[in-house]
Amino acid sequence: MTRNPPLARVLPFPVVDAAWRLALVPALAAAVTLPLVPPAGVAMTALALGVLWFHRDPDRVPPDAEGVVVSPADGTVSVIREEGDRLRVGVFMNVTDVHVNRAPLPGTVREVRHRPGANRPAFDKESDRNEQVVIDCEEYELLVIAGWFARRIHPSVEPGDTVDRGERVGHVSFGSRADVVLPADVRESDLRVAEGESVRAGETIIAERP
For residues 203 and 108, what is the distance between their CA atoms, to the nearest angstrom? Predict the structure, then answer.
C-alpha cells in the first residue's frame, strides 16, 4: 500500500490508496449538490470524509522482542479455540476500528487464496463460513473474514513475499474479523490475551513462542 496517495496532504491522517477511489463518488456528488441542494451536499461531503476516516492507516511500532506474536488487527479478541494441534485467535474489527491488517510474525507467503462464502455478522458463531482471504505463511495462517457488510478484502502481499512482524499485509472495508492460526509450538499457556480484550494491530502481543 502506497504511503502517499493523491491529495494526502489535505487529511490529518494517512489512508490506504483504495479509500480515495471509494470516496470519489460521494465527493463528486457533494460538488454537484452543494450549490443546488446544500443539505444533500453537506451529507455527501460527510459521507466522503467518513469513507476516508474509515480507511485510515496509522503507523505502528511492533515490539522489539524475539518470539512474540502480535495482533493482526485492531479490535476485540472474539475467538480463542483449539483446531487440531493448533490454536486460533480471532479479532473482531468494529466499524470504528482501523481495518489495516498486519503480519503477526515474520514469514514467507506461500499462498494467498480466496474462499467464497456467506456474509454473516463477523461476531456470529457461523461467520467461519463467510467469504475470506487466507494468507498462508507456512508455519502460521492469517484469515481475513468478511462480515455482513464487508465485501472488499484487499490483500497486499503475493506468494513469495517475505513479511516482517507488524508489516502491513492488506486491508478490509467496513467491518470484519482477522484470525491467526498460530504455529504448532504455541500452546494455550503462551497466550497473552483473553476473549473480550482490546488489541492493536502490530503492537499488542497476543502470544509468546516458547
Answer: 20
CB of 155 closer than 8 Å to CB of 103: no
Residue 72 near residue 104 (C-beta atoms within 8 A)? yes
Q: Please name which of 186, 188, 192, 189 lies closest in space to residue 205, comparing C-alpha atoms.
A: 192
Task: Name the residue with higher pLDDT: 79 or 115.
Answer: 79
β-bridge pairing 132-136 and 205-208:
unpaired
Q: Is 156 a catalytic residue?
A: no
Which residues 6+ apart lie within 8 Å of 96 measured at CB?
Answer: none
- Which residue in the list 156, 176, 189, 198 is annotated as catalytic? 176
The neighbour count for residue 46, using CB atoms within 10 Å, is: 12
> pLDDT band at 175, cuts 50/70/90?
low
The x, y and z cell numbers of residue 95, run together, are: 466499524
